[in-house]
Specification:
heterodimer; A: alpha/beta; 6-stranded mixed β-sheet; 22 strands; B: mainly alpha; two-stranded antiparallel sheet; globular
Chain lengths: ~500, ~350
């Protein structure tokens, strides 16, 4: 396979959005009939990259060539016609149309405006047979199919376009174990027919099983290209993903938290997300949770905050039970959620109003807001956090990712929060602002605020936290003081769960 | 860096000039609507110069326009809050009908003026609360919940009134519409008070801040500890309260109430709020803009009336103005976001 022809070649592809350089020099080479895996953390640029290939986004710089020709699909239709089909994670099928209608959606077979239903069904049946699923009736409504069946319809759609390259975005995420085996069989059949597959997954074991070569993305850049999917050591893949490209500059840790736990979580469970999670955070202590996306860490944080209802277990702060966001905020818990823009900010409102979003009632007198006091308080925080630009009047939309994050953290500083939950605090934040945020977090702890931090960047967890918890597939599988655990150990635990499965946290 | 020279403890925020603060912002934002109003008045003056030559007629006609805008204006204030908060209330016309009819039954009238006003307002608030509870706690889409309420409340109004027009025998209620204070009609004063209260509520109180936060980003509001469900209930109750007030105003104007009163008020109120710059998706809007929206509509109605033109043409023009205003709004929003991208 190694000498087969190159069908897709990307060189130095750059794509910027306002404030973000989503792709910053991507190199990618895909050959005919291979399964090429794309590996990278969330936010590494995988989604943007496949949208460029699918004609949804257009590259700002760099070159794409497809079958030896320069390639710049203007629309998704153009990409389809050129032979590149994309199967998104959220399958884009119409539930109330039949299998055949979905397969040929957008390029229906017709004569004089009338659908040729019989020949469409026939062709769909052929394609389904090619996919090894002749038993799926073309006239069946897609709604009635299980997730695995829907995925096969998505693939049938790709083949109905005579796709020469199929991009699959985490296709296994919605599948059960035996269905994944079936997916792999289909992929093998496709590649045997000369079709190339770009396969995206977080699961290393899958990449080892199905992949031929691996390209690793980190911060929109290719950090390793064309590694062997089978033989490259896990450690190398992981280090390319988490990367040394970013300098982690951690301020020295001062003081050590002692005394009774401020936050006590016992046996917290949510079906299908995480189970029997127990942990404590002391005042002035930073506790970090390391884990992959999908390990249940964000869900755990949101449940502690009362934003999700627990199926079992308790959360208490100073002995007060926390059951809702209202009680969480009242007892001094604040949260900076994972998705800043959609979960935390009013993008068109001025900075100071975003900072006082949880506390503006406190500045009000008998229901009347006092924007003067709010501004002054926000100015104080802006100084403390070195917000840039310093103006608290600007719409938050205009700030950089790092400064938006400062606004969210600042909100809870204003609210005299005693315990701060941080979910991926440095995602989408540039290097300089990261260092500043680290310092902010340390200062918080030095002032007696307890911090519970979740990050997929292991060095960040190790560098910031006093105590590290490792989460894998919904379980806290390991706990250690930060100075007694190293990155390699954490990575092994995170990726394979190997060391001491079942050891109580 | 100049930031280094800034003191760490800033003094109180600098006093803002009123035309630079958020007080004048709605006026600047609504310059387009003010322009439309001026154009409409010029059209009136050109088509009926003999009327506009008479200063006392112009004054009287202006009061007429404002009086016609009064009840729908009050409803639009409530509607604006609901829309800014991310919802919609299709039931306002029907709520007015129930409140109007209930407050003019013989039984209610026997309790006198205060009893009638109390009834109209309580009925309005309670129906609004039901809307809010269905939406917040029943998790119904606002469109569906209030659509159902629109149908049901009209039915209830017809049931209560036995499909009869109920004449108000209360001279105080009936007198509201004809009373003037210092030359200003009472109905216009009520509108002014409601608009002023609405403006303060939206721009100066925690209630207003919560409304904007919920409409702008409901998840962010929730995670900031705002009680989104309770506030949503209150928003619909506020809309119901405005309907109760409007019911009394309309009853006074007609000296009667009936199940078909305030027909299609929901559409006028939504249209006025939207052309006044309120974002249908929530999070942004102004009371002053909504007032201008109402005034544009009642000025058009007046323009057609003084020219003896049919209401059919009038409705076509209204439709055109709604489309044009929203197109202008979108254009402005787009150019704004493009500016931000640079």
């Amino acid at each position: 396979m190694s000498d087969s022809e190159v069908v897709l070649q990307l060189n130095g592809v750059v794509k910027t959005f306002p404030g973000v350089r989503a792709l910053d020099g991507v190199e990618l080479e895909v050959r005919r009939g291979e399964v090429h895996c794309l590996l990278g953390q969330n936010g590494a640029g995988k989604s943007t990259l496949i949208k460029v290939l699918a004609g949804v986004h257009h590259a700002d710089e760099g070159s794409l060539s497809w079958l030896g020709e320069p390639f710049a699909p203007a629309t998704p239709q153009a990409a389809m016609r050129a032979g590149i089909a994309t199967i998104y994670q959220e399958l884009d099928l119409v539930d109330d149309l039949s299998v055949a209608e979905n397969a040929f959606l957008g390029h229906e077979e017709s004569r004089a405006g009338f659908l040729r239903r019989r020949s469409t069904s026939g062709r769909t049946r052929e394609i389904l047979a090619r996919l090894g699923h002749p038993q799926i009736p073309p006239r069946r409504l897609v709604r009635s199919l299980p997730a695995a069946g829907k995925q096969i319809v998505s693939m049938a759609r790709a083949l109905s376009h005579d796709a020469r390259l199929i991009v699959m975005d985490e296709p296994s995420a919605v599948l059960a174990h035996d269905e994944v085996e079936n997916l792999f069989r289909i992929i093998h059949e496709l590649t045997a027919q000369g079709i190339a597959v770009i396969y995206i997954s977080h699961r290393l074991e899958e990449i080892r099983e199905i992949g031929d070569r691996v390209t690793v993305l980190k911060d929109g850049r290719t950090t390793a290209a064309n590694l062997s999917a089978r033989d490259t050591p896990t450690r190398e893949l992981v280090s390319r993903m988490t990367g040394r490209s970013i300098e982690y500059v951690f301020p020295p840790r001062v003081g050590r938290a002692e005394g009774e736990p401020l936050l006590r979580v016992e046996g917290l469970t949510r079906e299908g997300e995480f189970a029997d999670a127990s942990l404590t955070v002391r005042a002035g202590e930073i506790v970090g949770i390391a884990g992959l996306v999908g390990s249940g860490r964000s869900e755990l944080l949101e449940t502690i905050f009362g934003a999700r209802k627990a199926d079992a277990g308790t959360v208490t702060v100073d002995g007060h039970p926390i059951r809702s966001i209202g009680s969480a905020v009242r007892h001094g818990i604040g949260m900076a959620p994972e998705e800043r823009k959609s979960q935390a900010l009013l993008l068109d409102e001025p900075t100071y109003r975003n900072m006082t979003l949880s506390s503006f009632s406190g500045y009000a007198r008998s229901g009347f807001t006092d924007t003067g006091k709010e501004r002054a308080a926000a100015e104080r925080i802006a100084d403390q956090l070195e917000l840039r630009p310093r103006s608290v009047e600007r719409a938050v939309r205009t700030l950089s990712g790092g400064n938006q994050q400062k606004v969210v953290v600042g909100r809870w500083l204003l609210d005299r929060t005693r315990l701060l939950l941080l979910d991926e605090p440095t995602r989408g934040v540039d290097v300089g602002a990261r260092a500043e945020l680290y310092e902010v977090i340390h200062n918080l702890a030095a002032n007696g605020v307890g911090v519970l931090l979740v990050s997929s960047e292991v060095p960040e967890v190790l560098g910031l936290a006093d105590r590290v918890l490792v989460m894998r597939e919904g379980h806290l599988i390991h706990e250690a003081p930060a100075e007694e655990i190293d990155e390699a150990t954490v990575l092994d635990l995170v990726m394979s769960g190997a060391l001491m499965e079942g050891e109580a946290a | 860096m100049t930031q280094q020279t800034l003191t760490k403890v800033p003094g109180p925020a600098p006093k803002q000039r009123w035309w630079k603060g958020d007080g004048a912002e709605p006026v600047r934002r609504n310059l387009g609507l003010v322009g439309v109003l001026v154009v409409l008045i010029i059209i009136g003056a050109v088509t009926r110069p003999e009327l506009y030559g008479d200063a006392s007629w112009v004054t009287g006609n202006t009061w007429t326009i404002l009086q016609q805008a009064s009840a729908i204006g009050v409803v639009t204030v409530g509607m604006t809050f609901v829309i800014i908060g991310g919802g919609i209330d299709l039931s306002v016309g029907a709520i007015i009908a129930v409140a109007g009819v209930w407050s003019t039954t013989l039984a209610t009238q026997s309790y006198g003026t205060a009893g009638m006003i109390f009834t109209a307002i309580v009925v309005g608030v309670v129906v609004g609360l039901i809307n809010g509870v269905l939406i917040s706690y029943g998790k119904l889409v606002p469109f569906i919940a209030t659509l159902a309420m629109m149908v049901a409340a009209r039915g209830l109004a017809a049931q209560i009134s036995g499909k009869q027009t109920q004449v108000s025998a209360d001279s105080t209620i009936n007198g509201i519409a004809s009373t003037k204070i210092l030359g200003v009609p009472m109905l216009v004063i009520i509108l002014a008070l409601v608009v002023a209260a609405g403006w303060v509520l939206l721009n100066r109180t925690t209630f207003g801040r919560r409304t904007v936060a919920i409409g702008g980003n409901v998840e962010a509001a929730r995670l900031a500890g705002i009680n989104v469900r309770l506030h949503t209930v209150l928003l619909y109750a506020l809309s119901g309260l405005c309907c109760g007030i409007a019911a009394i105003m309309l009853t006074s104007q007609a000296t009667s109430a009936q199940a078909a009163m305030a027909n299609l008020y929901e559409l006028d109120a939504i249209a006025a709020a939207i052309i006044g710059g309120t974002l249908l998706s929530g999070g942004r809007g102004t009371i002053v803009g909504a007032l201008f929206g109402v005034l544009v509509f009642s000025t058009i109605t007046n323009l057609f009336a003084i020219n003896n033109l049919s209401t059919e043409v009038q409705n076509m023009v209204k439709g055109g103005i709604i489309v044009a205003a929203v197109l202008v709004q979108q254009f402005r929003y787009r150019s704004l976001t493009q500016l931000l991208k640079r």
